[in-house]
Design a protein that fits this description.
Blueprint (H helix, E strand, L loop, with lengths): L2 H22 L2 H12 L8 E5 L1 H16 L4 E3 L2 H4 L12 E5 L6 H4 L2 H7 L2 E6 L5 H5 L2 E4 L15 H20 L4 H7 L3 H10 L1
Parallel strand pairs: 1-2, 1-3, 3-4, 4-5
Helix pairs in contact: 1-8, 2-8, 3-8
């Protein structure tokens, strides 16, 4: 396969994964998560996210998007969590754990403290029967047929699927909470977005 075709194939494969996931994902579960995250700010609580590797990068991206729509959220490193970092987790907070396999030990490490402290735990995984899937309060299953790399194992399309699902949740919250451009501009004065908002307001 020529390089151009190979590059194009990966991009099309990833787009197809997102399209298929949009048809297969459980929207009742997504709606439940939307309700939970949409009430975080008014309750004075926060969202803590964690993942390892590419799942960790997805968790960071999701945390940022939630902050953009005024849902207080941040990424808690698995390395820091077991060295006192979990002290930031308090009762009533929401913990979102992302693990493709659902058996990543660094992610399972959060569960005892979260459960004892009274957090609502959401697991994002392809395997609802995994250790994570069996231990959390809510499971959002996101499973893809195959990653687009030549071995089919490098987490790329699945990572995009995780992010896409929470983009949808964040933007639903944004609309349902009546989030205004004035409120957005208060926290986003920089960059091209800030320039656009400055001209419009």
């Amino acid at each position: 396969m020529e390089r151009k075709e190979r590059l194009k194939k990966v991009m099309k494969d990833e787009a197809q994964v997102l399209s298929i996931n949009a048809e297969q994902i459980d929207y009742e579960v997504m709606s439940r998560i939307t309700d939970i995250l949409g009430s975080v700010k008014k309750k004075g609580k926060k969202v803590v996210l964690a993942g390892c590797g590419t799942a960790g990068q997805a968790a960071k991206r999701i945390a940022h998007t939630l902050c953009v729509v005024e849902v207080p959220a941040f990424f808690l490193s698995p390395a820091d969590s077991i060295h006192g970092g979990m002290g930031v987790m308090q009762g009533g907070d929401i913990l979102i754990l992302i693990s493709k396999s659902g058996n990543t030990q660094e992610i399972l490490n959060y569960l005892p403290a979260a459960q004892k402290k009274g957090l609502t735990v959401i697991g994002v995984t392809e395997n609802e029967n995994s250790k994570l899937g069996q231990a959390v309060d809510i499971v959002l299953k996101i499973k893809i047929a195959r990653e687009p790399d030549c071995w089919g194992i490098v987490s790329s399309a699945s990572t995009l699927a995780f992010i896409s699902a929470f983009d949808a949740i964040a933007f639903a919250i944004m609309e349902e909470n009546g989030y205004t451009k004035e409120e957005f501009y208060l926290i986003h004065t920089g960059g091209g977005v800030g320039d656009i908002l400055r001209k419009e307001l």
